[in-house]
Design goal:
mainly alpha
């Protein structure tokens, strides 16, 4: 994790190519309809429509919010791309159910695992992508710019979200009983909840270690075109 994150407005480049600006403006305009189309495709022939709704509700809520805030609070290009990838992971899990995603079955058989690991990927992404989302929100709206507290607070926020999601799954199990098994995707693992939160934790830490500098540059480009 970067101990002293750089706020984009502190290091604006005066010679950012205009093509970069056009790309930054076009990226959300291209990704949003692409994600909406993928959402519709994932609904078609979904194995369990109820599970599909529960898994993709975040996409259905997120797209309108991002559209409404596109002028007041445009997101960095990096974050837009990550959110789109995360949405695809959710939609694939919703279409097949996490325990039966074919790619996960291939990995299970190839590595000799006891369970389909796609659910683990989903929870890694649950930390990996929100880490950049939380980092961007804190950098742009809080006094944490340049603070050593930023990385640990981002990780804590991601872990808290993961814990809330696990409580959401618990509520679904209480209400739906066995009907919620596909949504829970525990696959018989009594430690599934703990593994899910651990995967989110690892995802958040890896995201900050790997993407903080890239995120700073993406925010700098956004600021250079007067979007912050």
């Amino acid at each position: 994790m970067s101990a002293t994150p750089t706020h984009p407005s502190d290091d604006l480049s005066s010679d950012v190519p205009s093509a970069t600006g056009r790309t930054g403006r076009l990226l959300p305009a291209v990704l949003a309809p692409a994600v909406a189309a993928a959402l519709a495709v994932s609904a078609w022939g979904a194995k369990e429509p109820g599970t599909w709704v529960l898994e993709t509700v975040w996409v259905m809520l997120g797209l309108p919010v991002l559209f409404l805030l596109r002028r007041r609070f445009p997101l960095s290009g990096l974050l837009c791309g990550l959110l789109a990838v995360h949405a695809l992971v959710l939609m694939v899990g919703g279409h097949y159910t996490y325990a039966e995603v074919p790619a996960g079955d291939w990995v299970r058989d190839w590595l000799g695992l006891e369970r389909n690991p796609y659910d683990r990927l989903g929870h890694l992404m649950q930390g990996f992508v929100p880490a950049i989302l939380v980092r961007e929100l804190l950098l742009r709206t809080s006094p944490l710019r340049g603070s050593r507290w930023l990385p640990p607070l981002v990780v804590c926020a991601c872990l808290a979200f993961s814990a809330v999601f696990e409580m959401f799954e618990w509520l679904a199990a209480v209400i739906g009983g066995q009907a919620a098994d596909s949504f829970l995707a525990t696959q018989g693992d009594v430690w599934d909840t703990q593994w899910d939160m651990f995967c989110a934790l690892i995802g958040a830490v890896c995201s900050l270690l790997l993407l903080s500098r890239l995120h700073d540059r993406s925010l700098t480009r956004l600021a250079a075109h007067g979007k912050l």
